[in-house]
Each structure stands twice: as C-alpha cells, then as structure tokens.
Amino acid sequence: MRGSIPAPGSTTARYGGNTPCVEVRCGDERMIFDLGTGARVLGEANAGAPMSGHIFFTHYHYDHLQGLPFFSPVFDPRNRFTIMGPTRHGRAVRDVIVGQMQQPYFPVTAEMVFRAQLDYRPFAEGDRHPIGEALVTALEVNHPGGNLSYRVDYRGKAVVFATDHEHGTDRDRQLEKFAHGADVLIYDAMYSEDEYRGKGGPPRIGWGHSTWQAAAKIATRAKVKQLLLYHHDPARTDVALDAIVKQVRRLRPEASAAREGQTIQL
Fold first, then answer.
1. By Cβ atoms counted within 10 A, which residue in 142, 150, 211, 248 is the most buried?
2. Nearest C-alpha neighbor of 171 from the set 122, 214, 202
C-alpha cells in the first residue's frame, strides 16, 4: 500500500504500512505483482502448503522488491514460480533479483537460500503472456528509470495495476486506453495537487508519482468501474487518507483507498 518506505505505527495501522505487493487470482492461477514488504505477509498466509504462480515486477526500486528475501515460499523446494520483469540498464530480471541480495547489503545470497523452482523471464511493454485463461499485458508509464503497469484480463473481467506513474504527459492518454473499461484500476495517488505543486513543502514534480485528483480524471476518462488509490505517502495517516477518500468520492463515488489485506472479488 505504502510507497517509498514501510510506515508501521498506530497512525497507519488501519490502511497498513507495508510496501507494494498485490495478488490476483484467476481460477487456479496466481499472479503476484511486486514483492514489497507486503510479500512477507502473503508468504506467511500460505505457509506450509505448496505454492506456485507468476511474479511480475513493475520496476526495481527498493520499495517494490525489498520483501523478496523474506518471502518464505521461495525457500521451499516444493514451490514453483515464474518471475517476470523488465530489463533495465542492460540487466535482466534475474540479474537484478540476484544482485540485490549480496554482501555487504544482505547476509546471504539468493543462490545460497532460494530452494523453490524459479524460472526468470523478461517482460516488456507490449508483451502478452497467457496464464491459463488469463492474459497479462504491460505498458510503460511515466516514472524515473522506467516502470511497467500491468493489465490482467480474465473471463470478461479486467484489473489494471498502475503504480508509480506521474501524470501530465502523453503517457496519461496511453494509460487511459490501456485501462479502458477495466473493472478495477489500482492507481498511484501518492500526493494531493497542492503537495505535488509545492504548497506547504517542496514540490514533488518529477518525483514519478501522481495525485488523487489525477487518479479521478484518468479513471473517468478510461471508464473504469472502480478506482483504488494506491502507493500512499508513508507520512499519510489513516485520518488523512479518510479525508482524501471523502474528497475523491465527490468525483468517483465508488473510489476507495487500498487497505492491507483487502480482497476484491469480481
């Protein structure tokens, strides 16, 4: 739910303080998008049972992969995962994943402790990957260093995961087309417009994140059925998020802010 860094504490407990990790189930197929610190909780929820699925990385900023070394299913040889993500700066997804678990940054390497059956594959804008009856596609959005948004289509339903996108470029129109008609749009709404423009603090222009106002506009133009605000500012309290949701609902009555452990059934 949170962006940039985990935000545990009494003022964030209701919406949650973990960084991004979203699970999508399509029949018997499991897709996991990003492995922020929320991945530890997901792994614990499946402890003891064999587990398989596809893991998709949007990008490799640390808040989106820092949960991987604590995602317990990768330590179990009974489990099988296909890990997919973009190639960045000449480094494929396996290179990035393995490279971030090295001393002196981490006490053990991926080669030392990962026991699950892992298949690493590249994924890029325009790719289409069928998983059972589901289809996963990707679009680059506006974020420093690059970032993929993902769309999952399954039996006439669609979910779009578009975190870490800064509004205000031609990518907005492309994202609206990509998300058109989706049942759920999970969208980066880290800031308010005032915060983004620098009222009461430093401007956030160029930081790679969007606003709740832009979220409402893009969701409306894309004709999505439900807007879910995501990548909450780590300094945003539950009370402050409640106030933002109240404002967003004047424009999008069905909108809500993502909560840790939240389940949406389509």
1. 150
2. 214
DSSP 246: H
Q: Rounded to whole angstroms, how far apart are CA atoms 167 and 171?
A: 8
H/E stretch holding 248 reads helix 238-248
Residue 49: what pLDDT?
86
Contact 73, 37 (CB under 8 A): no
Which pLDDT value is given to residue 151? 98
Cβ atoms within 10 Å of 134's Cβ, excluding its own: 20
CA distance to 59, 67, 212, per residue, from 37 (Å): 15, 4, 23
Distance CA 196, CA 189 (A): 11
Residue 263 — φ and ψ, nearest 5°? -120, 130
Handedness of CA 41, 42, 45, 48 (dihedral sign): negative
Whole-number mean pLDDT of the chain? Answer: 96
**In the prediction, which pLDDT does 145 show?**
96
**Could you give the strand order of the β-sheet that contains 52-56, starting from the edge strand earlier in sequence?**
22-26, 29-33, 52-56, 80-85, 117-122
Distances (CA, A) of 201 to 71, 190, 192: 36, 15, 12
Domains, in order of start, for the chain: 22-257 (3.60.15.10)
Dihedrals φ, ψ of 179, to 5°?
-90, 0
Within 15-72, residue ranges assigned H as helices are: 38-45
Q: 111-131: per-residue pLDDT in tens?
A: 999 999 999 999 999 999 999
